Amino acid sequence: MCTEFYIDWGAKKIVGPYQVRRKIVDQPHLYLFGVMEAITDFLNGKSYAYKQAMSRCPKTFQNLISDRPVTLDETAAFARVLGGIEEETNPNLVGSKVRGVEILPNGGGHAI
């Protein structure tokens, strides 16, 4: 089982999360390093990760779980929040600081 998010380039928003049961082979994906426990726990309304994500990033998190549009900038901020939660809950599993890269529809990109 894996969690996937999709980018809707036309609407400039992130769609998901979706729980998908399949191997990840030869398909474009959003990869998150160092947040695997928080990324699965944050969907459980009773978990520490859910409560922390809601308190730290309420508007974006509420939009994600309610299937409302979320901008790419909001998604980047939310990914940083999940990384912080993971660092608190599993400090031995989280590496050093992570740098994200936004890849634009025209093929260009920049660090976020």
At a glance:
This protein has 112 residues and is α+β, with helices and mostly antiparallel strands. Helices cover 37% and strands 19% of the residues. The chain is built from four helices and four strands, in the order E-E-H-H-H-H-E-E.
Tell me what you see in this structure.
With about 110 residues, the chain is of the alpha+beta class. The protein has one domain. It is built from 4 helices and 4 strands. A two-stranded antiparallel sheet has the order 1-2. It has a two-stranded antiparallel sheet with strand order 3-4. β3 and β4 form a beta hairpin. α2 packs across α3 (about 60-65) and α2 (about 50-55) crosses α4 (about 70-90). The longest helix has 18 residues, at about 70-90. The protein is globular and about 40 Å long. It starts with a strand and ends with a strand. The model has no long low-confidence stretch (mean pLDDT about 75).
Fraction in beta strands: 15-25%
User: Between the first and last Cα atoms, what is the distance in angstroms?
Assistant: 28 Å
Instruction: Give me the Rg, rounded.
Output: 14 Å
Biggest β-sheet description: 2 strands, antiparallel
The total domain count is 1
**How is the largest sheet built, in terms of strand order?**
1-2
Q: What is the averaged pLDDT score? A: 75
Number of strands: 4
DSSP helix count?
A: 4
* Fraction of residues in H or I helices: 25-40%
How are helices and strands ordered from N to C? EEHHHHEE
Give me the secondary-structure category. alpha+beta
Which overall shape is indicated by the principal axes computed on the Cα atoms?
Answer: globular
Q: Report low-confidence residues grouped into runs of 5 or more.
A: none
